[in-house]
Design goal:
By secondary structure, the chain is an alpha+beta fold. Helices cover about 25% and strands about 25% of the residues. Its main location: membrane.
Length: about 260
């Protein structure tokens, strides 16, 4: 799949290089482009960023209208790896196996002067919990979790990057288990509950200590699914409805200029 989107600051590749998995192969071509002579072919024409991701589109009938739902996901090349061996956040603020997903809803409308459409979209990211943590005894079906006491700089850098890329505030949804017979994920739950409030207020002596606009919500998805079944998703919908006024979403009409709702 070809890359697209905002510039990533790597030569002339017009994409977010965070998602360009073949960037190491493109760098020699980009370097050659900076040294090319007049009249020579532009190496950029041969540069096609490759994305590790997913795309799907479905049509849904809503009364007399058809709604087109589109899902586009792309996985970060930074700090990627296999389950249990890649966890948490690295020093540069990249979460393990981070995936950015955009959900797009398009409604086609008939009009006297031709077809029109309305579109709404939102972006969410999913990744390992942005703390320093790892597993112990990974041969066990439920390996223990070790939370390491490290500075908050990388966690702050992670959320700071999201704010730069997508604007603020950023909604943070904590889906970790809140009840366990043997505490495993609970260690992460309590640590994240300590960290996020610290990031939303200035801390003296901390690197880049400006308060971050984060909307923090906890929801024990696994235990609620066990208790409520499909109704657990209804609770998630209520959380979304509460968060949307704060974070907004992209809205576009074919006969208007694009803008944020």
């Amino acid at each position: 799949a070809g890359g697209g989107g905002g510039g990533g600051g790597e030569g002339a590749v017009q994409c977010n290089t965070m998602f360009a998995w073949n960037l190491h192969m493109l760098r020699p071509l980009l370097a050659a482009g900076r040294r090319q002579v007049d009249g020579a072919p532009d190496p950029e024409d041969w540069c096609l960023p490759v994305v590790h991701g997913f795309f799907q589109q479905r049509l849904i009938q809503v009364g007399p209208r058809r709604l087109r739902l589109t899902l586009v996901s792309r996985r970060s090349r930074h700090f990627a790896g296999t389950r249990f061996l890649r966890r948490g956040v690295n020093d540069r603020g990249h979460c393990a196996n981070e995936v950015e997903t955009e959900q797009i809803a398009t409604l086609d409308l008939a009009a006297a002067d031709g077809p029109r459409c309305r579109m709404a979209a939102m972006t969410q990211t999913r990744g390992s919990i942005p703390l320093f943590w790892s597993h112990r005894n990974i041969a066990s079906p439920k390996p223990d979790i070790v939370v390491h006491d490290r500075p908050l700089g990388p966690t702050r850098r992670h959320f700071g990057r999201l704010l730069r890329q997508h604007g603020g505030p950023v909604a943070v949804l904590n889906l970790i288990r809140q009840q366990e017979k043997k505490p495993i994920e609970l260690h992460l739950f309590h640590r994240l509950n300590e960290v996020v409030p610290q990031l939303t207020r200035p801390e003296e002596g901390e690197e880049g200590a400006e308060p971050l606009p984060l909307l923090y919500t906890c929801y024990d998805f696994i235990n609620n699914t066990r208790l409520l079944g499909e109704n657990a998703l209804v609770q998630l919908e209520k959380i979304s409805q509460r968060l949307f006024p704060g974070i907004g979403y992209f809205s576009f009409r074919a006969w208007e200029a694009p803008g944020a709702a």
